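Much of what follows relies on a compact textual record of a protein's fold. Here is one such record, which you should read through line by line:
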Amino acid sequence: MKKTNGEEARDAAAAYDQRLVPWLFDHWADPLIDLAPLQPFARVLDLACGTGLITRHLLLRLDSHGRVDGVDTDPAMLAHAAQTMSDARVTWHESVAEQLGFGDDSFDRVTCHQGLQFFADPDAALSGIRRVLRGGGALTLAVWGPIADNPWPAALAEAARRTVGDEVGDAMTTVSRLGDPALVDTMLRRAGFRDVNVEVRVERADHPDVTEAVEGQLAALPDATSISDLDDHGRRALLDTMVSLLGDHVRPDGGVSVPSSVVMAAATAPG
């Protein structure tokens, strides 16, 4: 029996959290939070929270007075986060980043991990973040660097281009559309932030089995993509193509080790 769209979305959210986050994203969480001081009693907005990676790390830093509001547009990811994280200090919200439903000066800190590049209007989102931050409050964010410096998303995009089509492959490069640190700096200053600090960091991500890693990536893709409509033969072709494209990063034991280039930034709200 074919799964419903809701079931596919829930499966993709679980795959993202269980098969992709632990090796590709988790090691970026603490460095992102460490970009600015965090008081244990702070109220934090985790924007584009997904399945709750950054929220989980934030809760380890906050005391009983601290609070996290997790915001995302994907109800399946929010549902997964709520089911896997039972903590009264967290509230989950389904919302677009450009229309945050919070009052002015509501937060001491905002984090945004790998979300800004996907927003329909990143400049409007940054202006909204500045509005909800208290004076002196910090925004810390991270986005992928240039696609040429990130073999994992580059291989996914090229594999999709070869097996599904140029339009789908090109869409996969959206992850790096804000990969220029000078652009991120300009956007933050244009939104009215001060004390802007932008840097590029490169870390390696390692998985013990390249095929399992790619299978996890494909399982985690949103159900709305054309890739989700591929039959078993098409998905196998996509998987094999991506594994082949990653050949230079596959270890003799069958594992994969890829460099990840990430633009990280910290900025302060005026006031």
